[in-house]
């Protein structure tokens, strides 16, 4: 695990256990897609382990499918390195096959190359955070995306990517959402520009399901979701998305991303400026309950338009 510490210029430095400090790079989450061959190699190893443990346990593919709440075809595809398994599958297979958590321990290797190393360090910060405040103007934040919406996002960003590459991206994205339902989840406050909700990414069906998922996520006691409508002409956020992460110990961290780059900093002046901006954005946004009603009506509008 890497730990965050302030660097001399205000950027975050990363101190891996037993390693040298690393500085966060001025890059973005958008990475070059890993090769199909590399992903296939990872899946082949995982699939062979599932196959070996299944035979040792004396189970058929049908019995494993029933015990892991999936289809026989899915088990067959996983064993043949043709499908990206979910963490849930690994957990259920470990339980059923009595592997002492071997598959769950192996599973993270399947998604490790979905992002560059430096962005995994940002994700580790996300997992350590006790509070996350995010303003978004472009797309639904990753913590609240559905599988289909995430796939549409990655397909647009990587139009020549293979199915396995897209599967890896989506699995890595969705796995981040575990923090929302863990025993001690962070307080998550997200304010979305109305344009995020009206940008029909993936088509009307995918967007309708995404808005429904937003509403369900907003029902979580630790998720505070607001919408800033088009009628609010001026606000401190402008068109620049950003995220603030707070911790029980250590300084708060600011993360911002554009199309060509992302940067992480804990410079006190930058953090304080964006904290103030986020508070002002929240004050101009629709209240929490009104925001939910706004999303419900927009969902109905999209569904009527797709009839």
Structure description:
The protein has 307 residues and is α+β, with helices and mostly antiparallel strands. It has 13 helices and nine strands. The protein has helices at 36-57, 61-67, 72-79, 87-97, 102-106, 108-111, 117-128, 147-157, 163-175, 194-198, 204-218, 268-284, 288-305, and strands at residues 2-6, 12-16, 22-23, 131-136, 187-193, 223-228, 242-246, 253-257, 262-265. The strands form two sheets. The chain has a six-stranded mixed β-sheet, with helices on both faces. A three-stranded antiparallel β-sheet has the order 1-2-3, with helices on one face. It is globular, with a radius of gyration of 21 Å.
Question: Measured on Cα atoms, how large is the radius of gyration?
Answer: 21 Å
Count of alpha and pi helical runs: 13
Q: What is the total tally of β strands? A: 9
The largest pleated sheet is described as:
6 strands, mixed
Overall outline: globular
Task: Provide key terms for this protein.
9 strands, 3-stranded antiparallel sheet, 13 helices, 307 residues, alpha+beta, 6-stranded mixed sheet
Summarize the structure.
With 307 residues, this protein is α+β, with helices and mostly antiparallel strands. Helices cover 48% and strands 15% of the residues.
Helices and strands, with pairings:
Layout (H helix, E strand, L loop, with lengths): L1 E5 L5 E5 L5 E2 L12 H22 L3 H7 L4 H8 L7 H11 L4 H5 L1 H4 L5 H12 L2 E6 L10 H11 L5 H13 L11 E7 H5 L5 H15 L4 E6 L13 E5 L6 E5 L4 E4 L2 H17 L3 H18 L2
Parallel strand pairs: 4-5, 5-6
Antiparallel strand pairs: 1-2, 2-3, 4-7, 7-8, 8-9
